[in-house]
């Protein structure tokens, strides 16, 4: 374990899932017990996943099958002026905390915000189930209207030449090319346009270069190289939705305030992010927001990751999530500025 400087008071935890809590179908050593100890401590936490191979409910089910006993995503009851029996300032009591946040749920929200209804989805069937509701229940194969966006996640069977080429053609405006039989030429429906073509958005669940897999065992390509290929070929910039974007982290952190869990803690101390990928979990937005960044040596971690050229070194390195929780909770209780209110969730 590396400890380059004194750890500040911990306000809350953001916890990566795959490679940190579990690798494939098995929990990392001691992770289940450590997770329950963390919950019992009362320090607020959220689980953050870049998975795009399955929907958020599927992620929750997977974790619960492993013994983590995670709460399902709530149906948030909206606050309105007509809501009765609530003192001024207590609207947040209506918001039940959402323990699991995924890049797929963030993609669905992004598409809803941008009014995108006809995406070309390179997603798994499970992930599509979470996106379909914001499309009005219409899937991407059910109509002939032009695509208004391209969404790329990690679904290996769709990241082949045919699908990537279709995505490329959509992005450059060649999605509807008709054959002119009379003169034997290929004629694009965009060939006569006078205004510059505006490419539909390329949306990426994340841009991880590689992931940890069970079959084959070890590191395998993530969606990042495929997204980069589309960016380069189509001369566009992808809208990356998941970790480590600042927006993703801000959205999750805001949930602590909506539920009231950080009210009594105030601004003292830092929010922790724990993950096994020094770039995808601990980079970019995590650095910008000043999160206390903890790297664990499980999952996709490889020796020397913490000192890799071009990355901001993590604040701490532990052998596992279990060791991290053990050390942090023990030292948190002895922190000179620690009070009982610092570790108690306000609403449950």
TrEMBL record:
One of its GO terms (molecular function) is phosphatase activity. It comes from the Eukaryota. Signal peptide: none annotated. SUPFAM superfamilies: HAD-like. One of its GO terms (cellular component) is cytoplasm. PANTHER family: 4-NITROPHENYLPHOSPHATASE-RELATED, HALOACID DEHALOGENASE-LIKE HYDROLASE DOMAIN-CONTAINING PROTEIN 2. This is Uncharacterized protein. It comes from Agaricus bisporus var. burnettii (strain JB137-S8 / ATCC MYA-4627 / FGSC 10392) (White button mushroom).
